[in-house]
């Protein structure tokens, strides 16, 4: 099961906070993944097509619980994608038009509602329930082991903006972007994704995100230290090669025996241990020498060669 499917399944099992929260959830489900067909004055048909069992289960359960309407349920299997497709149909029936008004899909004049009706999300808990329904219906949450991304695919720019504004009431700032024929209300901040999922009740999914963040933090720290160590080793190797080059020039010019004792000691140590850092090289001297002391001797050797 994908991480998105796990989130949707967890959200579909959340209990409503008040008697109107189920209505808000059902309204979001119908709006995000439903298709409304007009068959004449007062005659409609609402279809919800989904590949997610949580959507189908929630849609049918809440429709029967709240609207008391007849539903038709069809399961089809895609040969190409090898997945199940669920089709929930609310056929034309006496109380369907009233139900569509109640869900905020139609207004009282029979016109389509472009945004989110205030009566559906009038309570704070109902706003949360509506966002939860939108996530169940069209949400995508990337596996946190890869990257942090949450989005809800919707139709209609006015509705996308309204949904983004509704999520914004929770102190989260989503963005809206076009995805081919649809729009996406999306969040990329790990902290905002965590906060939104906590608000809508996906605590198990948030725990998985926290585990992934902790693992990423450990990996990043290990990588940082390894990269720093490799960089230090590279610099030390380059510096050692430069120092060996200085010593080679000294020998070519026949200056080794004329060098001050301190410089001869450095040359002997470096030739004996070409791979060591200055710090480790200094520890082998008798008495031990600091890194700065050895660096000073290298500088003296460079100046001597320049003057010769």
From TrEMBL:
<dbReference type="Pfam" id="PF14527">
    <property type="entry name" value="LAGLIDADG_WhiA"/>
</dbReference>
<dbReference type="InterPro" id="IPR023054">
    <property type="entry name" value="Sporulation_regulator_WhiA_C"/>
</dbReference>
<dbReference type="GO" id="GO:0003677">
    <property type="term" value="F:DNA binding"/>
</dbReference>
<feature type="domain" description="Sporulation regulator WhiA C-terminal">
    <location>
        <begin position="222"/>
        <end position="304"/>
    </location>
</feature>
<dbReference type="InterPro" id="IPR018478">
    <property type="entry name" value="Sporu_reg_WhiA_N_dom"/>
</dbReference>
<comment type="function">
    <text>Involved in cell division and chromosome segregation.</text>
</comment>
<dbReference type="GO" id="GO:0051301">
    <property type="term" value="P:cell division"/>
</dbReference>
<dbReference type="GO" id="GO:0043937">
    <property type="term" value="P:regulation of sporulation"/>
</dbReference>
<comment type="similarity">
    <text>Belongs to the WhiA family.</text>
</comment>
<keyword id="KW-0238">DNA-binding</keyword>
<dbReference type="Pfam" id="PF10298">
    <property type="entry name" value="WhiA_N"/>
</dbReference>
<dbReference type="InterPro" id="IPR027434">
    <property type="entry name" value="Homing_endonucl"/>
</dbReference>
<feature type="domain" description="WhiA LAGLIDADG-like">
    <location>
        <begin position="129"/>
        <end position="219"/>
    </location>
</feature>
<dbReference type="InterPro" id="IPR039518">
    <property type="entry name" value="WhiA_LAGLIDADG_dom"/>
</dbReference>
<dbReference type="InterPro" id="IPR003802">
    <property type="entry name" value="Sporulation_regulator_WhiA"/>
</dbReference>
<feature type="domain" description="Sporulation transcription regulator WhiA N-terminal">
    <location>
        <begin position="21"/>
        <end position="102"/>
    </location>
</feature>
<keyword id="KW-0132">Cell division</keyword>
<keyword id="KW-0131">Cell cycle</keyword>
<dbReference type="Pfam" id="PF02650">
    <property type="entry name" value="HTH_WhiA"/>
</dbReference>
<protein>
    <recommendedName>
        <fullName>Probable cell division protein WhiA</fullName>
    </recommendedName>
</protein>
């Amino acid at each position: 099961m994908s991480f998105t499917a796990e989130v949707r399944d967890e959200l579909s099992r959340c209990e409503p906070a008040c008697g109107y929260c189920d209505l808000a959830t059902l309204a979001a489900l119908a709006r995000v993944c439903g298709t409304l067909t007009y068959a004449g004055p007062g005659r409609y048909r609402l279809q919800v097509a989904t590949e997610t069992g949580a959507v189908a289960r929630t849609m049918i359960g809440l429709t029967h619980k709240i609207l008391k309407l007849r539903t038709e349920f069809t399961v089809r299997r895609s040969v190409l994608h090898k997945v199940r497709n669920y089709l929930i149909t609310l056929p034309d029936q006496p109380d369907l038009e009233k139900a569509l008004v109640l869900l905020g899909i139609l207004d009282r004049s029979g016109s389509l509602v472009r945004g989110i009706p205030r009566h559906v999300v009038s309570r704070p808990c109902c706003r949360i329930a509506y966002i939860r329904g939108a996530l169940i219906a069209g949400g995508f949450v990337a596996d946190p082991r890869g990257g942090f991304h949450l989005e809800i695919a919707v139709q209609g720019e006015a509705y996308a903006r309204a949904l983004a504004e509704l999520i914004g009431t929770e102190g989260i700032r989503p963005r809206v972007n076009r995805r081919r024929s649809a729009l996406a209300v999306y969040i990329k901040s790990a902290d905002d994704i965590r906060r939104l999922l906590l608000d809508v009740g996906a605590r198990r999914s948030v725990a998985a995100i926290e585990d992934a963040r902790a693992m990423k933090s450990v990996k990043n720290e290990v990588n940082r230290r390894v990269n720093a160590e490799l960089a230090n080793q590279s610099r030390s190797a380059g510096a050692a090669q430069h120092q060996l080059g200085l010593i080679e020039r000294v020998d070519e010019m026949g200056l080794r025996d004329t060098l001050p004792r301190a410089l001869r000691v450095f040359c002997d140590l470096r030739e004996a241990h070409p791979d060591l850092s200055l710090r480790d090289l200094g520890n082998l001297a008798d008495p031990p020498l600091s890194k700065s002391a050895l660096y000073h001797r290298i500088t003296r050797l460079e100046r001597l060669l320049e003057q010769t």
